[in-house]
Amino acid sequence: MDRSPTPERPKRAAPKRARVSPSAESGSKDEKVSKENKAPGATEENDVDVGVLLASLPSQSLLPLLTSLLSAQPSLKSLILPLIPRPTLETALQVLSQSSKKLRDAYPYENSAQPTPVTLGFGFGASRHSFGAFGRPQAPPSQAAFSQNPSNVNSGMRESYVTSRIRTHVTEFVSACMSYMPYFSYAPGTAQSSSATQSHSTTLQSLHRGHHHPNETYQYLAAIMDHFLSQPPLTQASLGPQLLPRLEEEWKAWVNKLDESVNGQAGMFTEDVVRTWERGLDGYANSQGDAGRVMRMVRDLWISKVGWLAEWARHRVYSAVVIPRFGPSFTRQKHLRAHLSFTASVRDNFSSRGTSQYHYPPRPPRNSHDSASSVSENFDDSMHLDQARSAARKIQTVERANSRKSLYNNLLRLLSSRRNASLPVLLDYHELHHGLRSVHSYNLLIALAIRRHVVSGMIQFLFKAMDNDEIPGNRETEKLKVRWSVRTGNWDDAWLQVTAAHPNSMPLPLWLEFFHGAKVRRIPIPRRANALPSHGLSEARFQTLMQNLPTFLPNQVPGSVRAAHIVVRSMLSLDRPQSALTFAMWYFNGLPQYIDAPWAEKCVAVIDALIAFEAKKRGLRDFYAARRKLNSLLEIHPTFRPTAKTLYLLLGTLSHAKQRGTVSWQTLIKFKMRWGPQVEDSRVRRRVGSYAAERLSRLQLRASGPTEQSQLAHHSMRTPFRVMFPRHGYEERLWKSLSIRALKVKLRWQHAPRGGGIRVISK
């Protein structure tokens, strides 16, 4: 009940509406309509600035406001989407991870462990045994933690209850996947639905097409697959109908994009990227359920179009033994087609009738535009120039082998021929002799592949093919496995496996293979010893090797001098010259009284390594110290005789000496009188001549005045390189340089003022 109004507070009631005439009412309506149709610049709409209000709002309030606006006006989506900046891959992956975690946390577990992601295999065919560093089969990849039967995971829970719990989060996860999909999609827009929801995706895809790398697309699709496979089976059953059809379309579009980029535009991808794609697709193809079925089709499509990027098993294509030479970093289809046509012609030459011959294709005629010429022109890359030239020369024939020994000998003939057959040709010839392959032929090809620094997939293929042929390896095969592991950076793993296989005493050949990582073309000088390449032998590894030094005496183990040479060079590379000298003298003192000439020459090579390290010093005092060391080493055994290389290295210590011309000439005369004329060769003569020319040049410059240089300026003009270096060899080029310097000295002497003479003042 309303109380009575007080005098201070009068009662307020609703005002009575005044009755107006119809004409006045229509006039008010027209006035209202005219106000609504006014221009945006009218004063009624300028009284509130929406931008000022939006700028003052906190960031968390903008999203609900924008969502409400889009709900009220759905047509604004087409205007807002093009204005949104393209998200980065990291942002998209973070959103997917958060959404997947929410979906996983929403799953009602009961007496069951949390799910673990699926472990992917290594390389295609991961269901088979993959090979480790020594060609031994490794354990197959682990499977998913979930069983295919949902009742095993959620015992006592109804599926309808679980589905109702995760339905909202499933929708959110699918929405997150589809929202970022257009930014990383290669699928054509015509393949999508024509509905209003898909039209926005098509618009975004057309706006951002070409702004992403194929590897980004792979990472995004792989992230979705990882999150999908990490979910429980019941969640996968709910996600499958909504995600798998679109994922299948996107994966196939990605493969088609790679096909266009690689085979159509000669695109190139690095080895690490291709390896990642290979392992990922193989792991997804080995998964269970509908996802595995879809990814197996994608994997097969990848193999058929761009599978030659990786080293496939020989059972997939005939020329798989040829494909690995291109490597994952070389992806030119024209080179592949040219070599495949060459392989097919070779394969046809091996008929079952008559004597089979191994033919090279004939050389195409010059200035011709036939198919053979076009195939030859395709080999424009320098890494395949030798193969193209050998394939373009006239026919050479090698009879087909009829025994294991003849197969090995034919491989040696191809390898040692004047045209130097390429490794793919040797592999093709080896593959055509099923049943005749032996451990010696496999060891030859593996050693050649390691020596030529080919991709590791080819070497792994050879080890796997050797196991498939049921050919047991020997000690040489074990050496090659160690060498391959050391060259690829798996030194520690190789050491553990070899020590486990030989716990008592490691064989000397295997022990020496661990020094290959420190192989150097020359002995580094000490100032660079601390900056050795990363693949070299470290101090810790060297200590490990020396602590496990095999027992070998010079008069008991054949080839022990090679071990001594390797150890000495390794010590010198680690800047330990005194240890290297002590080890060399220990080895030389243990030699028998008589050794043959080849053995003595190899011992002198060890001495040369020690003298080469001394050649870092550039003074007369250092020369005499190096000569004393050389004489002391040569006196250890009566069969030691220095070579021309020994004298050449010894004279290298005189490069900074003032009297190097005179001292080098006297040293050459003494060596020839004591050891014979074999200590002099072209290199020694060039070094002595260069020292003499430099000495005379300094004497002439000391005697001549400053004006003499300007008068002789036209005589010091450099001869063009095409005249100085006619490509007759490194030694002749050095001789040409020396002759030019000697000519300059002669001209200076001829133009020197007469009568004054040269006075040499010794300090």
Automatic annotation (TrEMBL):
Source domain of life: Eukaryota
Positions of the UniProt region annotated as Disordered: 1-44, 191-211, 352-378
Places the protein is found: Cytoplasm; Nucleus
Positions with biased composition (Low complexity): 191-207
GO BP term (any one): protein transport
Keywords of this entry: Cytoplasm, Nucleus, Proteasome, Protein transport, Transport
A molecular-function term among this protein's GO annotations: proteasome binding
Amino acid composition bias (Basic and acidic residues), ranges on this chain: 1-11, 27-38
GO CC terms: cytoplasm; nuclear membrane; proteasome complex
Keyword Protein transport: yes
Pfam family, one: Cut8
Keyword Heme: no
Function: Involved in ubiquitin-mediated protein degradation. Regulatory factor in the ubiquitin/proteasome pathway that controls the turnover of proteasome substrates. Targets proteasomes to the nucleus and facilitates the degradation of nuclear proteins.
Complexes and interactors: Binds the proteasome.
Protein name in UniProt: Tethering factor for nuclear proteasome STS1
Taxonomic path: Eukaryota, Fungi, Dikarya, Basidiomycota, Agaricomycotina
